[in-house]
Amino acid sequence: MTPPSFSLVFNLDPGVTWAASLDRCAAWSGIPRLTTPEDDRTGTVVYLGDRLPPRAAVRRELYFLAACSLPPNDDEGDWAEEAANIARVDAVLLVSASERDKLVAAGSPPGKLHVVGAPLQVLTDPGPAAVRRVRRRVCFIGQLRPIKNPALEVEVVRALRSHGYDCVHIGWLDRDWRDRLERAGAQIVTESRREAYLEAVAHCGFYVATSFSESLCLSALEAVALGCVPVVPDHSGFRDWCPARYRYTALTARAAVERLLALDATGETGPEATALDRYHPHRFFDRIDALARGPLP
């Protein structure tokens, strides 16, 4: 058996959504995964690239940084460790321009930084069958860590309920935030099966995010791919893919709700399908292949 022409090493937190998505998309794209028990503990994932033309075997280390631990994410990781990795590896793969800008401002060498986006598995999943979309049903998705601004989500839910919208939070919550959201009028849906999760999202007409910052926001991309109209903050990774008319500038319940009401009144149906084309798994891994072929700084 001819050995692969290169290997790609991704350093990921195995507990985050990105790790699972990257794994699924790599398998779907036919890229083998090699890990050891030690790799699984440290979050290091090695993918062998065998899609390139034959050449002398070489190993390049590419560091996939889904979200750097610089403010406002400084309580969610270890920037010193990330900076050491950036200095060591051949190239750093980032999901958005905003992440690149933060790293450049922190002193990382621009030539090492490559915005490659992320693989969006939902673009290859079979769509939910016969799901009836409810226009005035609004979904919020994910775990409510501090960076997600859960207090604002509670305010937005309360305000939307006063306008007659149904609100649902899809994802696991601790008891405190679950109670607060339910008191505000939200339904809580915890789906462990991916098919059920996709159906729950596809049932909704709108998706709302309230985060202080997002490297890209995988849940928002999935919701849009499933037909939801996005209402998201005008900052960070949202600007890479979400048109301005779906973004609200002030992080207040009033701004978010007014944006949603305006979109609903004009019958908006969401961004063009082509807005997500660059996140197709094949295109994501093709970009990585191109990096492995060409010269790196």
UniProtKB/TrEMBL annotation:
<feature type="domain" description="Glycosyl transferase family 1">
    <location>
        <begin position="136"/>
        <end position="240"/>
    </location>
</feature>
<dbReference type="Pfam" id="PF00534">
    <property type="entry name" value="Glycos_transf_1"/>
</dbReference>
<dbReference type="GO" id="GO:0016757">
    <property type="term" value="F:glycosyltransferase activity"/>
</dbReference>
<dbReference type="InterPro" id="IPR001296">
    <property type="entry name" value="Glyco_trans_1"/>
</dbReference>
<protein>
    <recommendedName>
        <fullName>Glycosyl transferase family 1 domain-containing protein</fullName>
    </recommendedName>
</protein>
